[in-house]
Amino acid sequence: MSVPPIMDEAKFERDRLELFRAHGFEGQSRWLADASLGIRTYAIARGESRCPTLLVHGGIADASVWYRMAGHLAGPVVIVDRPGHGLTTGIDYTGLDYRQHAVAWMKGVVDALGVEQVDLVGNSMGGYFSAVFALAHPERVRRVVLAGAPAGADRELPAFLRMWGRPIIGHLISAMMRGTKTPADMRKRVFASMCAHPERISDEALHVKLAAGTRPGWHPMVRSMIRAVSDLGGWRPALSIREAMTELAAPTLFAWGDKDSFAPPRSGEELAARMPAARVEVLADAGHLPQLDQPEALATCINRFLAGAADRPLHAVAGGAS
């Protein structure tokens, strides 16, 4: 199976839906329109609810990053592509107020779902989007799960991400990524630094990820996003949400891999101790993308938390071979 030079959107949609179905998630395509932003958000949805679980992926991913875990979640689930990723309307982050955009897009998604409240599950940049929305619109969020170190809670970022947004070298990184043609290359160049077990990601999933990277405009969008949120030192201090999160009222679960390359679990433990209703579960043998390393363990944590089991200790350990 070869990756086309330009994304075939219809094929991408079919392949991704089949990837989820093959792993126990029977989702359907759904489009969520926001006229005020001019964005049509693509979602893979299962079931209907007055309070669905909304999954928001990280910075350079798309909805497929949840393929191993989604089938283990209870109840109605909506998995979105963030702007510029997957099949959602493209965007250039140059000159945008990034936090304001994140809040506005999230509100548009929730409004388009026609619900008053959602449970949020965000990974990495999706954690940032989830947290800032919950801070801005607490009445719309029942509970928050931050899977992996949430963007904006720590200044540190991996060097390759900081460099990707810089002039010249950022174009070189994009050229290297465009030259990534096989699942083996993708595991080595992208997922080896983000997962404890990149070998657990199927070739089929990596073909979907490779196809997502052939979307016209994806590389300039990524560079504009990274420039918007980071400088050479890491996450921009002006966009830090660490102090703001101490006011996050919604019950919050940090599900943090013990091998997260972005920040160690103690960062979440220190932050959770200062929040009104937060706790941490450390996922054993998992990296920054615990939904790929330990999908069943993460889903168990999420299901228990969203069901309202809040009587567990602040720090628990979960995980194991998957």
Topology of this structure?
Elements: H1 9-22, E1 28-34, E2 39-46, E3 53-56, E4 77-80, H2 98-113, E5 118-123, H3 125-136, E6 141-147, H4 159-164, H5 169-178, H6 183-189, H7 203-212, H8 218-229, E7 230-231, E8 234-235, E9 252-257, H9 265-272, E10 278-284, H10 290-293, H11 295-306, E11 315-319
Parallel strand pairs: 3-4, 3-5, 5-6, 6-9, 9-10, 10-11
Antiparallel strand pairs: 1-2, 2-4, 7-8
Helix pairs in contact: 1-7, 2-3, 6-7
Domain unit count: 1
What do the pLDDT scores average to?
92
Report the sheet with the most strands, covering strand number, pairing sense and barrel closure.
9 strands, mixed
Structural class computed from helices and strand pairing:
alpha/beta
Tell me the strand order in the biggest sheet.
Answer: 1-2-4-3-5-6-9-10-11
* Ends distance: 26 Å
Helix count from the secondary structure assignment: 11
Question: Per CATH, which architecture?
Answer: 3-Layer(aba) Sandwich
What can you see in these coordinates?
Helices cover 34% and strands 18% of the residues. With 322 residues, the chain is of the alpha/beta class. The chain is globular, with a radius of gyration of 18 Å. It has one domain: Alpha/Beta hydrolase fold, catalytic domain (Rossmann fold), CATH 3.40.50. Helix 1 (9-22) runs antiparallel to helix 7 and helix 6 (183-189) crosses helix 7. The chain has a nine-stranded mixed beta sheet, with helices on both faces.
